[in-house]
Specification:
globular; 282 residues; alpha+beta; 9 helices
Length: 282
């Protein structure tokens, strides 16, 4: 997860995972494993059978969700992977942040690099920043990622989400073997439409909940489906290409500007382009 503005988008995923791992360890200490729940061997056998059936079903659902890929998504996937290869092969890295360059680069610069390479390839790509408020179920947060808006013959368009650290977003420090196997099946770089992403998130969050239950751990709020969906399926703000550093905030897309693309509506059903072409998120 990336918190804060464009500068905070440079936080390394390893640091984020370290922090989440710390909280998971604390939650595990608060909810220690029971020495026994009084159930007999027959009940335990029944629970084991249900567990096996659950994980088998999750593996099948994840496979089906990831397999749903259109021709446009396949092309964007290939071009995204090429951009990532160029980024990793760049001498001295692609980070323009003086304090980060020596450390191998930051997430913010990586996102901008990929978005720029996709625009060079002819796509309508940008860095997106989503932000959501705290509720009784989940904490507040922010996240940045890349998207591509693809036109269709109907005059509308679909939005394709690109997450460069997708697998890391679901890693769990205390995850069981079955859960870790699901995480390993995820692509490192996710490219897909909202419906595909929603299906994957649904499977992984259900798996995280089951993993927590089987290990007698409390379900961390940042593992919940609503929190994970808010990262990519909430209300993003598309950042103008080439915007970076202190200028990023000024270059952010403004609602109602006739010369700039507006924010996505909170419902995420359509993108209102001031009465012109709508962008349908499917």
């Amino acid at each position: 997860m990336v918190v804060g503005g464009e500068a905070a988008a440079g936080n390394e995923m390893s640091l984020s995972n370290m922090v989440l791992g710390f909280y998971e360890e604390a939650e595990r200490e608060r909810w220690p494993e029971d020495a026994g729940d009084g159930s007999d061997d027959e009940g335990s056998s029944g629970g084991a059978a249900e567990s096996r059936a659950f994980w088998q079903e999750q593996r099948a659902q994840l496979h089906d969700a990831l397999a749903k890929t259109s021709a446009a998504e396949t092309r964007i996937q290939a071009d995204t992977e090429e951009a990532v290869r160029q980024m990793r092969a760049a001498a001295g890295g692609v980070c323009s942040c003086a304090s980060r360059a020596a450390a191998g680069g930051c997430r913010g610069c990586a996102l901008r690099f990929v978005a720029e390479r996709l625009r060079d390839a002819g796509y309508n790509s940008a860095v997106c920043r989503s932000k959501w408020s705290r509720t009784t179920d989940i904490p507040s947060g922010e996240h940045t990622y890349v998207d591509v808006v693809v036109p269709t013959k109907s005059g509308k368009a679909v939005r394709v989400v690109i997450e460069l650290n997708f697998r890391a977003e679901f890693e769990m420090a205390r995850g069981g073997a079955e859960y870790k196997a699901l995480v390993a099946a995820l692509p490192e770089v996710f490219v897909g439409r909202s419906e595909k992403l929603r299906s994957v998130v649904r499977v992984m969050c259900a798996a995280a909940k089951q993993c927590a239950r089987e290990n007698n751990m409390h379900m961390a709020p940042w593992r919940k489906q609503r929190y994970m969906e808010a990262k990519w399926l909430g209300t993003p703000e598309r950042v103008a290409p080439g915007a970076g550093g202190a200028a990023a905030g000024a270059a952010a897309v403004a609602v109602g500007s006739p010369e700039k693309q507006p924010k996505f509506r909170a419902s995420m059903l359509t993108l209102d382009f001031g009465g012109r072409t709508a962008v349908e998120v499917v």
